[in-house]
Amino acid sequence: MNKNLVQGLGLVTTLAIALMVPGSANAAKKNFYKGKKITHYVGYNPGGGYDTYSRLSARHLGKHIPGNPKIIVKNKPGAGSMRLANEMYNKSPRDGTVIGMFGNSLHLGELVGRPNIKFVSTKFNWLGRITDGDTVFVVRPGAGVNSFSDLQRREVIVGVPGAGSATTLMTIVINNVLGTKFKLISGYRGSTGVKLALERGEVEGSQSILWAVSKQWATRTKMKVLYQLPSVRLSHLKNIPSVIEYAKTDDQKKLIKFFSSYVTLGRSVVAPPGLPKDRVRILRAAFMKSMKDKALIAEVSKYKLRFNPMSGEKVQTLVASAFNLSADLKAKAKAAAKVGKLKKRKKVMVTVKGKILKRNKKGSKLTLALKSGKKVKIRVGRRKVKIKINGSKSKRSGTKAGMTCKITYDSLGNFAKKIKCKN
C-alpha cells in the first residue's frame, strides 16, 4: 500500500478517535446512573423527622437524575447518627451511589471536641436542604416565667433527651453564654417525651419544640413561647424574639449564632467526600429540581410539613461559615459546651383504664379515653409487651376500637408494658 496513503489513514483514524473520546466521556458521565441504584441512609430509627424527610426526598429525587436510578432508603441509627456520619466519611463508595441524612448538630460536636468524631464536616458534599427548623423555647402555664429575664433570675427545670442531643447542647450553651439558670433533667424519649412531661408538670420548659409540628399542641396546652432559636426571626414567628437578641456582646452573638446554626442546617442531604465534581453537580441540580416537583410539594401540603429548601452550594457555604471563629472564640465555644453530668429522670409506671378511642392499622398507637374525659396516647412496641384480650394471650394487632382496657405504661415515652382488654 502506498506509504502516503497509510499515513493519511492513520491521521484520519487519530482525528476520529480524538473527536469521539470527549463525546463518549460525556455520554458516560450522563449515563452513569442508568441501571444503578442509590442508597439513601438515615442516621435515626424509622418514624422520626429525619426519616420522614429522607423518604420524602428519596421518593422524588431519582426521576430528576439522568438515568433515573432507583433510590432505596435504609436506616442506620447509632450514637445520635454519628455512626452513619463516620461511615459515610470513611467507608462509603465515593461515586455518588450513597447519600444520607444525619444529625444537624454533628458539626458543632466536631468543633467542641466531642469524642469519636471521625469526619470533617466541611469535606462532605452537601447536596441541599429540604427545610430548616423553627425551634422555639416554651414554658408551661403556671411556671411563673414570663420573660427571658425570669430565666436569668430563677431556676427553670428543662427536660432534654440526653447528653448528646442538640437540645441539651443548646440549653447548656445558653446557660453558659447568656446566664440563664436552666436545670436539665435528661432521659426523655425525644421531644414527644418532653412534651408529655410538660403536660404532667414534671418539667417547666423545653428547648426542642418545632413550631410547625407543635403549634396546635402548644395552643391547646397554653404553653408560653419565650424565644425562637434561629438567629434571624422567621417570617411566621416575627413577633417572637430570637435568642440572639438577648446577647449583649459581639462574642456572645457569635457564639449563639454558631451553636444555633444547626437549626438553619435543618434536614439536609449529604454525600461522602471525594466525589467527582460532575457527579456532585448532577446530584445538586437534581435535588433542587425535585424540590420543585409538584408531587413532592403535594405531599408536603398533605402532611403539613415545614418546607424551606436551600441549594447544596449554599448549604456548603453555611457549614463552612459555622467554623469561621477565631482561636479565642473556639476556646470559648468549647468552654460553653461543657455539658457535665446530667440528672436523669427516673422511669415511673402509670396504670390507666378506659376505652380505645382510636388505633392505627398496626395497633402500635392507641388513644385511650378515660372516665375523667382525659385522652391518653399510648405506644405499643412489638416486643416486651404483655397483651391479653378477653383473658387470652394476644398481639397488638388484636386490639380494637371500643374495647375497654387496663394499660400500664412508662411515663418516659408512654410505651405500654401491660395491656388487658375486653370487648
Quick overview of this protein structure:
By secondary structure, the chain is α/β, with parallel strands linked by helices. It has 14 helices and 19 strands.
Q: Can you walk through the features of this model?
A:
Helices cover 37% and strands 24% of the residues. It is α/β, with parallel strands linked by helices and 423 residues long. It folds into three domains: 37-132 and 266-308, D-Maltodextrin-Binding Protein, domain 2 (3-Layer(aba) Sandwich), CATH 3.40.190.150; 135-261, D-Maltodextrin-Binding Protein, domain 2 (3-Layer(aba) Sandwich); 349-422, OB fold (Dihydrolipoamide Acetyltransferase, E2P). The chain has a seven-stranded mixed sheet with strand order 15-14-13-18-19-16-17, with no helix packed on it. It has a three-stranded parallel sheet with strand order 2-1-3, sandwiched between helices. A three-stranded antiparallel sheet has the order 10-4-11. It is globular. It starts with a helix and ends with a strand. The model is unreliable at 11-19 (pLDDT under 50).
Main features:
single chain, alpha/beta, globular, three-stranded parallel β-sheet, 423 residues, 3 domains, D-Maltodextrin-Binding Protein, domain 2, 37% helix, OB fold (Dihydrolipoamide Acetyltransferase, E2P)
Overall, the morphology is globular
CATH superfamily placement of the largest domain = Bordetella uptake gene, domain 1
What is the CATH topology classification name of the largest domain? D-Maltodextrin-Binding Protein, domain 2
Q: Please count the helical segments.
A: 14
Would you tell me the structural class of the helices and strands? alpha/beta
Please indicate the percent range of residues in DSSP E strands (runs of 2 or more): 15-25%
Q: Report the mean per-residue pLDDT as an integer.
A: 90
Query: Strand order within the widest sheet?
Result: 15-14-13-18-19-16-17
Radius of gyration: 26 Å
| Fraction of residues in helix | 25-40%
Question: Main β-sheet: number of strands, strand sense, barrel status?
Answer: 7 strands, mixed
- CATH architecture assignment of the largest domain: 3-Layer(aba) Sandwich
Overall tally of domains: 3
